[in-house]
Amino acid sequence: MLVAGIAVLIIILIASAGGSSGITPKDLAKKAALAKAKAKPKAAVVVDPLITPGVHDWIARRKGDVSAAVLNLKTGKEWLLNPDARDQTASIIKADILETLLYQNTKSGESVANAEGSVPEGMIEASDNDDATALWDQIGGSTGITAYNVLAGLTQTTPNTQGFWGETTTSAADQIKILEQLSGPSKLLTKADQAYQLSLMTDIDPGEGWGVSGGVPKGVTVALKNGWVPLTSNSDWEVNSIGWIHGDDHDYLLAVLTAHDPSEGYGINTIRRIAASVYRTFGTEGVKPATASSKTTTSKTKTTRSS
Predict the structure, then answer these.
(1) Please, what is the average pLDDT of the chain?
(2) Residues 11 and 63 in one domain
């Protein structure tokens, strides 16, 4: 305001001195408005929650690979870390299996709760593999889930065609698309479908609630699905977590996939660190300057009961 005021004063003095300079009050008003606009403070740049200094340094030092995606539902802004990575889903695919089942049953006029009894609950809440296999077969295996995924906009997910559903490969960005079908208006799932699946994903068995819930305080709702599986040995793990976090002025979707972890706990700790950083960052969004875009950043290191 001070700069704008000085600009106006200078213009007025020039006009007075010029006398017949031809400057009109309308000209003065335009120049004053221009000076005011130039004097406006710049808006704070939003922080990329996936490459805050602490997380970036940790990812650079850790063993194995990590990719992630986060979508802020309040702003619609999405960030990606190592977007070209493709990982085995392990048990996070169970969220996709249930969405496919709900979609198919709604199309045929069935209620999933009545038709399947406790099977979906076992698959999501306890991550039971037998329940997952039963539902995988029921939806038509890779053919059925591929048809649903196409409708949901997934382009980076390849279902396993041999019945080994946990060996499906995917990206963090595609997992956000799965979560979007639950977090807002969907052309594929009814509100009842969404409420049913979310009721299961917010009631995960004790001991399996780790993952994208890391750093999230009590009272904030977390709907999640985790997956973990040894890849080639007990010192080579895939550990993944996807979920929707909302409450306490936060509302976002997060997917973190880690591969080639030396242990299951190592992968879990990585996801917890990233999740906690995302929650903290969104709590101070728009205050700190951004560092760099994670969409173009690749880390120096290359994610229940699992399949």
Answers:
(1) 84
(2) no
